[in-house]
Amino acid sequence: MTATKSSQVLQGTSPTWSVSATGFVTQSGTVDNIQADTTLPTVYLLGEIEGADKYLTCKSSNISFNGYLASNGDLYLCGDNSSGQQGSGNTTDVKTLTKRASNVKKAVLTSHSSWYLNEDNELYSCGYNQFGNHGTGTKGDSEYITTFAKRAENVKDFYVDKENNVTWYITNTGDLYGCGRNDCGQQGSGNTTDVLVFTKRAENVKEFKMETNYYYSRYLTNDGDLYGCGLNNAGQQGNGTTNNVTTFSKIASNVKSFGFNWYVNTSNELYLTGSNNFGQQGKGNVGDTVLTFTKRAENIKKFIESDDFLINWYITNDGDLYGCGYGAGYAQGSGSNANVTTFTKRAENVKDAFKSRYLTAYLTNDDDLYLCGQNDYGQQGNGTTTAVTNFTKRASNVKSFDTWSGYFCWYINDDDDLYGCGLNSYGNMGSGNMNNVTTFTKRGTNVKNMDFNGFATGYTTETNDLYLCGNNTHGQQGSGNTTDVTTFTKRVTGSINTANLTISPTPADATVTIDGEIVSTKDIRKGLTATYTVSKTGYVTQTGTTDHLYADTTLTIELEEE
Questions:
Q1: 200 exposed, middle or buried (CB, 10 Å; 0-12, 13-18, 19+)?
Q2: 545 CB-contact burial (10 Å; exposed 0-12 / middle 13-18 / buried 19+)
């Protein structure tokens, strides 16, 4: 599948090019400031992959609708529609996955709204508009927007809190715009009046974050300056007072990473401010609120904060894990349920860590998973419901891990298998019943990504199949009814445009490996190459790589005796 095309262009211009074919992913590009005859490298188109690329849900506790983003950019939704969040033009629940938009590159579902950013950098939304966070100029307790409408252009990224109160976006030129709830001054407007249209608040913005419960806002400039505004009842703004801050005010310079009561500077030093009711400031005592950002540690690689700011953890550049704060949940790994008031080393060789008030987990550089904390629902995966007070190894070869408020846990291993355990009130563990699961149990294979909330779980596979299970009160399982689903059930079947590769060896009983898998025939995505090995004791092993495959191909490989 090759073709050569040429065209005359003006010298000094920057022509764009595009290569497309039915069943293949289009490729395009630009030749900058062309000055002479130019031949581009051969463009190999890849076979199209259809189906579900990413499962979509929301971490809100009362979410009852799901969706997925297809590999071609189509957005599908189903479930609760009481606020018009399905974009269907009405408020009737939708019980099957239904296409709502095309050309989408990012989508976010909140408790009662849906948002997406398309490939043209346009921001669209629909749903509940109680605080004016859709930027329409109006708001109301009964204001439901039932069809998707454009809210902004030239958008680089956007941010919506899970409870659907405030919305922010950054433009491609680094301008920051916000609207919505403003009772604590979190809009940076100089007052506490809700903001009903998107309003510019800053320039030269690199990164933005809003606190989980939407009460305060932070942004980092391209120059490393950190600014914040909003709630300050516990000194979280670090300005020496407990008065709310209604305009964005500079917090620090030379900042590398940040959150809502912390930042790490370019010298890898950790600074904290705010509540210390459980010793989470790491200063050796409990009780006194810290009103200014104060240095607490050095050599920081990553800081990990809990959603409720009761526990703090960090990983050093040497891979050591340190923690302090709330201890009643047994999540300090200290051997007891006592609060820990100074940062204390708990592990070495740590790659990443995950936390809640009641459970802490970490992954080592060897991909081992360790857990500690409460275990009321079997979320420790040890076959019991007894709390675990010290970090204990639970799995090996773990690629990713996540937890829902410490009540249940999921991980994907290096073989792309999905394992879970813990609370199972709605069948969300996919076990076939609603009994809690006390040991990590395999629930899926060939898993590409997964997500969940407290009621439902979903994952997509490498072949873009979508599987769902859990609560179905509003038809969010896409099953056409409202019966809870207790086993992972396929809702979308993906497909890949492939060519078959067959290796025919002599001797016939030689072992054939294609792309690391011991098979003599395998479907390969069109446009890719494949590596193969043919071996047999007493013969010289042969290895090779195919050309870019666009048609079914059989290779005959004859081994020579040693």
A1: exposed
A2: exposed
Handedness of CA 228, 233, 239, 243 (dihedral sign): positive
Q: Give the residue extent of every domain in the chain.
A: 49-496, 500-558
Show the tokens assigned to 352. Answer: 């990443």
Q: What is the pLDDT of residues 155-203, one digit of tens each?
A: 999 999 988 899 999 999 999 999 999 999 999 999 999 999 999 999 9
CA distances from residue 361 to 310, 336, 354, 402 in whole angstroms, order as listed: 16, 16, 5, 9
Length of the chain: 562
Structure tokens of 15? 């022509």
pLDDT digits (tens, 9 = 90+) for 324-335: 999 988 999 999
Give residue 535's Cα distance to chain centre: 42
Pick the CATH number of 49-496 from 3.40.50.2300, 2.60.40.10, 3.40.50.10310, 2.130.10.30: 2.130.10.30
Residue 142 burial (10 A CB sphere; 0-12, 13-18, 19+): exposed
184: number of CA atoms within 13 Å, CB side? Answer: 22
Cβ–Cβ < 8 Å for 97, 68: yes
